[in-house]
Amino acid sequence: MLEQPDNTTSDKATQGMPTWVKGFVIATAVLAVLVVVMLLTGGHGPGRHTQGGSPGPAVGQSTNTNLVPA
Q1: Under 8 Å between Cβ of 50 and 58
Q2: pLDDT, tens digit, for every residue of 23-37?
Q3: Is 59 exposed, middle or buried (0-12, 13-18, 19+ CB in 10 A)?
Q4: Are the C-beta atoms of 3 and 9 separated by less than 8 Å?
Q5: Which of 8, 12, 43, 57 has the highest CB neighbour count under 10 A?
């Protein structure tokens, strides 16, 4: 009679994602959620880089209001 190989090793080690991949996916998901929360709550975004939170003048427009029309 043929002997069956000893299958005492766990099949878990040969299937599924490696632990480092799971950790990377979890860390990426947490980072993505934090970015979305910060953008929705106003903690960060394009408006944070202007003074007073208001958009600046358009490109090519002068900010000098003391100009005399010609």
Answers
A1: no
A2: 999 999 999 999 888
A3: exposed
A4: no
A5: 43
Contacts of 39 (CB under 8 A, 6+ apart): 45
Question: Does the pTM of the predicted model rise above 0.85?
Answer: no
8 A C-beta contact, residue 57 and residue 63: yes
**CA–CA dist 32, 53 (Å, integer):** 24
Which whole number is the average pLDDT over 41-64?
65
Round to whole Å and give the CA distance between 49 and 20.
Answer: 36
Phi, psi of 14 (to 5 degrees): -105, 0
Which residue type sits at 26? I
Average pLDDT, the chain: 75
